[in-house]
Amino acid sequence: MENRTTESIVCFRNSFSIGSAVTDKPPGDYRISREEELITEASCAAFRTVSISIQIPSLGTPSLTKQFFDIFGDDLDFALQRDEELSNSRIDPVRRPTVSMAERARNFDPGGEKDR
User: Fold this and answer.
1) Within a 13 Å sphere around the CA of 56, how many CA atoms are in the beta-carbon half?
2) Which of 11, 21, 70, 106 has the most CB atoms less than 10 A away?
3) Given its phi and psi angles, is residue 60 left (phi above 0), alpha (psi -120 to 50 degrees) or beta?
């Protein structure tokens, strides 16, 4: 059978764990390798995923060793979905909630009494 390997990069914006990993991994860009085999019974070229692995540590992290850990596609999808949900649920520190001019006027204290 013919096999092919494709690589992609996924970005986690929050610490994460995949599958049965005990420790959380830090945010960053991670290389994903997917090995697929050719399905010869198909009438056109079709491939089936044989294995998926993630490279630890993240890209750009200085390390003497790089390790690849096998993961399941469903676990990767879940981790990416969770990362997206966590990122969307947090308030961006650059984009603070806006306060109307009327609200600012109501809270204005010219003597600074509220600060004491």
Assistant:
1) 14
2) 21
3) left
